[in-house]
């Protein structure tokens, strides 16, 4: 990337002019209204969006070039807006939202008069120091609206006009699918695929292209769920330590003037209000949330251990009055070293906290400094001792792998020390250098300044797997290890019950800023900004105030299947699905399962996957229900290492299954 403010090469300027001239094919309507790019992108009447789409194609290519050629996604959809509307939303390389400063660039570009487009583009490139000679990668998806094909063509034209660029349309997909494909593309996973396989489904935005077929819709909502999982965003409003995460947080006053405590109390007041009236997203959707005892509760997101015990008691009391707790409920609190005392740990335990997750990250002083962590190795060890003394025996610790300058011995030494202290669950996360984060700015190039190459990071992962197995832990999820209870092959009782609910697609309620719920097949994310969240609760939790709503899991059978495959294959248990071919929906599901099996078979030959496909009756003595059964799991550590690539192949295979006859589509 060039230095900010440097002059663009002449050839690059010509490229900008050519892109601007191409806009003549998509002129801006004279009476076009001013539009603004928000959290949902642009959404308005489809008949005035052609010009906007072309320009957003240019912007997507510019964003990719600004990120040194990482893939950027573009989704053409208006979600649940009327059919006459449409919209466009850009997706970052890891599936994140477009940064706010780029939202401003999108708004300016969309509203620029045609005769000033070249000038505005040149100013933007100069301002951001973008090297236009970098190859851009843009992945385009769309929904099933009648206007989406036309608008996708305009967008592809815009992205392709700013050469060099690779524009890849994947046809009709949902927003979560696009996010996943973009993430896989960003990791260059097509290069990890077995010979003869491609990691992504390619196709042009026309009705006959591979990957462009519409997904089937069901006519009824999913069955009402148990309110068994509650993910609170409580801690998101509390002070946070560390510089490698990108969570919705707000740092409160800690100067002893009482403002921080007042802010926490104000936040909990609103949180309790949401607990009483919400949980499923908008307060009006609460009917979809079945009342019943909670089996797990997780406080996470920022630094929940800074929460005063009296405020934790208020939250737990509110949840108890609304739902109740099962007798063996797993109540977990994330507790960062240096943020709690033995006395507070005892208070939390007396309130019903039975499990703690401790963000150790490393036991090396220099690595902790590089992480920007506010605690020392000594504080981490004291935190673990305090939890044990308080009677909280079920303790999980987080470690980071792939830190700049980290050696294999540093990682494995930390693992051994934590296990010796009685930790019965370890989450070992491979550090991702996300664009825009402090880590990515400080360590931009793999193999330099201590940042590991992908190969070195993979070796650390494999070494950690071997060490944990030798210490008596099972590798039950891509990043998770649990201490086994004995020498048998049964699953460890120390697995995270709450996280397993996510991977098994068990419905869960959620409360707090930035918290995401999954109820009745609908995913909803609350406002991320604390003040926006408080205002949303105060206004009665309207649907319009939600940060994001995804109805695909409720309305699209294939989306639900895709997600179940992707989440299930993250675990050592894998997946076991049966499609009953007695119905049209079951026959379509059977075709999808066969496609998944076909995509996984090459990976079985390379030792990454176990997969079997069986045709037969649902029950041995019941021939009236013929069907297809798929069993599959990734093998640790090799399969887990390439899980994104393997799952991308499976997703691509399902996307290429022909649509069922719409007249025979039935409810799930």
TrEMBL record:
GO molecular function: 4 iron, 4 sulfur cluster binding; magnesium ion binding; phosphoacetylglucosamine mutase activity
Source taxon at top rank: Eukaryota
Required cofactor names: Mg(2+)
Recorded catalytic activity of this chain's protein: N-acetyl-alpha-D-glucosamine 1-phosphate = N-acetyl-D-glucosamine 6-phosphate
Region feature (Disordered): 203-227
Pathway: Nucleotide-sugar biosynthesis; UDP-N-acetyl-alpha-D-glucosamine biosynthesis; N-acetyl-alpha-D-glucosamine 1-phosphate from alpha-D-glucosamine 6-phosphate (route I): step 2/2
Transmembrane stretches, start-end: none
A Gene Ontology biological process term: porphyrin-containing compound biosynthetic process
Protein name: phosphoacetylglucosamine mutase
Originating species: Polarella glacialis
């Amino acid at each position: 990337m060039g230095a900010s403010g440097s002059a663009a090469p002449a050839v690059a300027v010509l490229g900008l002019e050519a892109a601007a001239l191409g806009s003549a094919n998509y002129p801006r309507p004279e009476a076009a209204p001013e539009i603004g790019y928000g959290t949902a992108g642009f959404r308005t009447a489809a008949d005035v969006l052609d010009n906007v789409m072309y320009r957003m194609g240019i912007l997507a290519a510019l964003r990719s070039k600004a990120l040194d050629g990482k893939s950027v996604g573009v989704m053409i959809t208006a979600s649940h807006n009327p059919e006459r509307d449409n919209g466009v939303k850009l997706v970052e390389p890891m599936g994140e939202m477009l940064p706010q400063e780029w939202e401003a660039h999108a708004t300016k570009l969309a509203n620029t008069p045609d005769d000033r487009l070249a000038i505005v583009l040149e100013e933007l490139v100069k301002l951001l120091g973008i090297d236009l000679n970098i190859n851009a990668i843009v992945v385009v998806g769309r929904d099933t609206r009648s206007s989406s094909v036309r608008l996708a063509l305009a967008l592809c034209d815009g992205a392709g006009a700013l050469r060099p660029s690779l524009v890849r349309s994947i046809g009709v997909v949902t927003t979560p699918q696009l996010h996943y494909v973009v993430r896989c593309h960003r990791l260059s996973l097509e290069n990890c695929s077995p010979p003869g396989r491609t990691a992504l489904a390619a196709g042009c935005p026309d009705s006959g292209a591979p990957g462009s077929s519409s997904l089937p819709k069901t006519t009824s909502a999913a069955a009402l769920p148990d309110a068994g999982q509650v993910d609170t965003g409580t801690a998101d409003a509390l002070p946070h330590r560390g510089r490698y995460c990108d969570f919705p947080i707000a740092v409160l006053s800690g100067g002893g003037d009482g403002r921080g405590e007042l802010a926490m109390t104000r936040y909990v007041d609103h949180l309790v209000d949401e607990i009483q009236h919400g949980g499923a997203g908008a307060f009006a959707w609460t009917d979809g949330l079945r009342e019943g005892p909670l089996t797990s509760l997780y406080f996470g997101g920022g630094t929940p251990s800074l929460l005063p015990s009296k405020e934790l008691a208020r939250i737990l009391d509110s949840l108890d009055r609304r739902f109740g707790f099962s007798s063996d409920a797993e109540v977990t609190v994330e507790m960062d070293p240096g943020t709690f005392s033995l006395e507070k740990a005892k208070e939390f335990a007396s309130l019903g906290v039975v499990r703690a997750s401790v963000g150790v990250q490393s036991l090396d002083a220099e690595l902790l400094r590089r992480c920007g962590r506010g605690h020392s190795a000594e504080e981490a060890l004291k935190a673990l001792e305090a939890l044990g003394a308080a009677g909280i025996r079920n303790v999980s610790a987080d470690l980071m792998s792939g830190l700049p300058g980290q050696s294999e011995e540093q990682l494995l030494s930390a693992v051994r020390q934590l296990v010796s202290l009685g930790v019965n669950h370890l989450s070992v996360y491979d550090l991702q250098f996300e664009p825009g984060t402090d880590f990515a700015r400080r360590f931009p190039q793999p193999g330099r300044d201590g940042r590991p190459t992908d190969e070195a990071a993979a070796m650390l992962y494999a070494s950690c797997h071997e060490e944990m197995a030798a210490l008596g832990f099972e590798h039950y999820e891509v990043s998770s290890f649990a201490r086994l209870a004995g020498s048998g092959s049964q699953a460890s009782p120390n697995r995270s019950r709450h996280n397993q609910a996510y991977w098994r697609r068990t419905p869960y309620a959620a409360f707090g800023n930035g918290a995401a719920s999954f109820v009745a097949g609908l995913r909803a994310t609350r406002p991320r900004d604390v003040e926006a969240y408080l205002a949303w609760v105060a206004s009665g939790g309207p649907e319009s105030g939600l940060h994001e709503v995804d109805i695909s899991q409720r309305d699209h059978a294939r989306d639900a299947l895709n997600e179940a495959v992707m989440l299930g294959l993250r675990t050592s248990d894998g997946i076991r699905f049966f499609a009953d071919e007695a119905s049209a929906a079951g026959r379509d599901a059977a075709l999808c399962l066969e496609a998944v099996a076909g995509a996984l078979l090459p990976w079985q030959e390379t030792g990454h996957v176990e997969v079997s496909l069986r045709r037969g009756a649902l029950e041995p003595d019941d021939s009236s229900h013929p069907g297809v059964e798929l069993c599959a799991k990734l093998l640790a550590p090799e399969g887990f290492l390439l899980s994104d690539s393997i799952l991308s192949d499976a997703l691509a295979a399902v996307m290429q299954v022909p649509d069922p006859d719409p007249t025979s589509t039935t409810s799930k």
